[in-house]
């Protein structure tokens, strides 16, 4: 039994490494990941810019990303340990919607601001007291937007103990979610992606060093 479990984990790790290599190249070649000097929406400077919303324009790559996320969730926490998926517009919601269809799980989402007419709700979808919710997002930076959504979900009576992201920018999201009792999981992170591109000679030593410096500063 233990031997089979270890073999399955080893196979998943190898499969994930192959996915990261392919995913990194795809992001870089299709403009979803750019290196340079950028100003983020928060006002912070960054030596790279990533936009996973572009991935859904490439169905085969998008589906492979969703399937890898599905496999990771299945391996780490299992789909029987939560009742519903939750996300926030827009990037995370696209991913959560596709994952909900693949896994036949209910989906709810948290508005960035309450609806200004009708019911004035902040949360869309069916929820109930004690419902176990798995948070899904595309990219984690500081974790602020996810934290706000998780707090709203908890105030509504749901239980949130895990969150999954496609790409972790390694800028403090794990720590801030942990302070709320939520464990953040990732499909990959910016260091893994950049190292993979560097090993494939697609980015220079200078770019890799800039990314590592940025992460270390955060």
Structure characterization notes:
The protein is an alpha/beta fold and 218 residues long. 31% of the residues are buried. The strands form two sheets. The chain has a six-stranded mixed sheet, with helices on both faces. It has a single domain, classed as Rossmann fold (3-Layer(aba) Sandwich), CATH 3.40.50.2020. The protein has helices spanning 2-29, 59-76, 91-103, 144-155, 173-178, 190-199, 205-217, and strands spanning 33-39, 45-50, 84-87, 107-110, 123-124, 132-140, 159-168, 183-189. The longest helix is centred in the first third of the chain and has 28 residues, at 2-29. β7 (159-168), α5 and β8 form a beta-alpha-beta unit.
Largest sheet: number of strands, sense, barrel closure: 6 strands, mixed
Succession of helices and strands: HEEHEHEEEHEHEHH
Mean pLDDT, rounded to whole units?
91
Assess the beta-strand content as a share of residues: 15-25%
Q: How does CATH name the architecture?
A: 3-Layer(aba) Sandwich
Q: What is the CATH topology descriptor?
A: Rossmann fold
Task: Describe the strand arrangement of the main beta sheet, using strand numbers.
Answer: 5-4-3-6-7-8
User: What's the number of extended β-strand segments?
Assistant: 8
How many structural domains can be distinguished in the coordinates? Answer: 1
Give the N-terminus to C-terminus distance in angstroms: 42 Å
In terms of structural class, how would the helical and strand content be classed? alpha/beta
Task: List segments where confidence is low: pLDDT < 50 over at least 5 consecutive residues.
Answer: 1-5
Radius of gyration: 18 Å
Count of individual helical segments: 7
CATH class group:
Alpha Beta
The oligomerization state is single chain
3D shape:
globular
Q: Report the helical percentage.
A: 40-55%
């Amino acid at each position: 039994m233990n031997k089979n479990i270890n073999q399955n984990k080893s196979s998943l790790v190898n499969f994930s490494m192959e996915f990261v290599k392919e995913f990194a190249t795809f992001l870089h070649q299709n403009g979803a990941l750019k290196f340079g000097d950028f100003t983020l929406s928060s006002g912070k400077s960054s030596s790279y810019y990533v936009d996973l919303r572009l991935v859904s324009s490439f169905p085969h790559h998008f589906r492979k990303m969703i399937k890898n996320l599905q496999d990771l969730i299945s391996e780490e926490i299992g789909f029987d340990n939560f009742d519903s998926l939750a996300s926030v517009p827009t990037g995370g919601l696209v991913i959560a919607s596709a994952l909900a269809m693949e896994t036949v799980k209910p989906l709810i989402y948290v508005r960035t601001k309450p609806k200004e007419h009708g019911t004035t709700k902040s949360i869309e979808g069916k929820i109930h007291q004690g419902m176990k919710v798995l948070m899904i997002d595309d990219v984690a930076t500081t974790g602020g937007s996810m934290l706000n959504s998780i707090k709203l979900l908890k105030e509504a009576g749901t239980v949130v103990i895990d969150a999954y992201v496609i790409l972790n920018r390694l800028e403090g999201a794990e720590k801030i979610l942990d302070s709320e009792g939520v464990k953040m999981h990732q499909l990959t992170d910016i260091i893994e992606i950049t190292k993979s591109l560097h090993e494939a000679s697609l980015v220079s030593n200078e770019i890799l060093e800039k990314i590592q410096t940025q992460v270390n500063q955060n």
